[in-house]
Structures are given as C-alpha cells and as structure tokens.
Design a protein that fits this description.
This protein is mainly alpha-helical. 70% of the residues lie in helices and 0% in strands. It has six helices and no strands. Helix 1 packs across helix 5 and helix 5 (106-114) runs antiparallel to helix 6. The chain crosses the membrane at residues 7-25, 45-67, 88-109, 115-133.
Length: 151
C-alpha cells in the first residue's frame, strides 16, 4: 500500500458520513421508498440517482484533467476496466433480486441503521453471509484450478 496522506482515512470517514446523511435526508435509506420506486409508484429515487450520476460524471471527467495525481494518495488516475463476463451477470442478478426483495442496497443499509431501522440488521446479516459464501466459493475454485494446473 502506498504512503497515504495523514488526512486520507479521516476524509474517507467524513465522505461516508456525508453519503449516509444524504441517503437519510433523501429518505433513500427507507426500504419502503425504494420498493415504491421499484413498483413505479414513487420516482424520487430516480432523481436522487440521476443527481448523483451527474455529479459523479462531472467529477470523473474534470478531476483527471485538473490534477495529474490524486491529492491524498498520490496515485495516478486511470480507468480500471473489468471484463463483462458470467460472474458480472450472475452477481448483478443476485444483487438485483436482493435489492428488489429487501428494498435496500449495502450502502443504504448502513444509513438505514443510522436512522433507527434496526430490523435492517437481518438484511445486513444476509449480505455478510452472502459475501462470505461467495469468497469461500471463489477461493475453493481457485485452489482447485491451481491443483489441476499443477498436475
């Protein structure tokens, strides 16, 4: 890991707080709001996501042109392209089904805890179990592929 600016972690924390506050303030941390969007009853989420996409798009377009390196890490800016493969499709489908059933995504789940929704702990537990199972499955698969290649 590269040497980080001393303010790197505190600013990550502050950024998370701002993100969580924004989710709570816009009511996007409430699963019923998300479910109403998915049932085409309330389109507020569309405006929240659209606003975030515009701000992110402008930042991703302008910041690399204004700075050669990231201010806090010193890392160079670059695109990290991932292949569009079977894992992306399956993972996206699982995420979408979980989002549709629970009305919550991981970032909003933590913000939902912050606004007092303790029943969201069930969804968070499911996310942790799913992430652990996927990591275990991938490590077992990688180990078997390595053993097969060694033979």
């Amino acid at each position: 890991m590269a040497d980080r600016h001393p303010l790197f972690m505190p600013l990550i924390f502050v950024g998370g707080l701002i993100f969580g506050f924004g989710l709570g303030f816009s009511h996007m941390a409430r699963p019923e709001v998300v479910l109403n969007f998915l049932q085409f009853e309330d389109f507020g989420l569309l405006f929240v996501m659209g606003g975030a996409a515009v701000v992110s798009g402008i930042a991703f377009a302008l910041v690399p042109r204004l700075f050669d390196r990231a201010p806090l890490t010193g890392d160079t800016y670059g695109r990290r392209l991932k292949p569009f493969d079977r894992n992306v499709l399956i993972g996206g489908a699982i995420f979408g089904v979980g989002w549709g059933l629970s009305g919550i995504c991981p970032g909003a789940a933590y913000a939902s805890l912050g606004v007092g929704n303790v029943t969201i702990l069930w969804a968070l537990a499911g996310m942790f179990v799913g992430a652990y199972a996927q990591g275990y499955w991938r490590s077992q698969r990688a180990a078997s592929e390595t053993a097969t290649a060694a033979d």
